[in-house]
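Field reference: sequence -> structure
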Amino acid sequence: MKWYAGLKRCSHKRGRAWRNCINAVTRAYAKPLPKLFAQRTAEHACTSMNGAGESQLNPEDPEYRQKQAQLAATLQDCMAKARA
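Structure field:
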């Protein structure tokens, strides 16, 4: 992430210069972080929902492939909404 690259540039500085560098990195990347964390949370919810759905599938069921394809489509839709 660019955030860590910015912090790495600050690592050799000391005192007030270090604090100013950290503050500059924080200001530069503070806006994208909440959106990124919200997206990550939404993606995790999608994958856990998909995992719960797959655990309920029975491979012996004659409609197994249809249900599995439906779960895959649901996962893709959910991920697309999470990344939008």
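Note: Helices lie at 2-10, 16-29, 32-55, 64-83.
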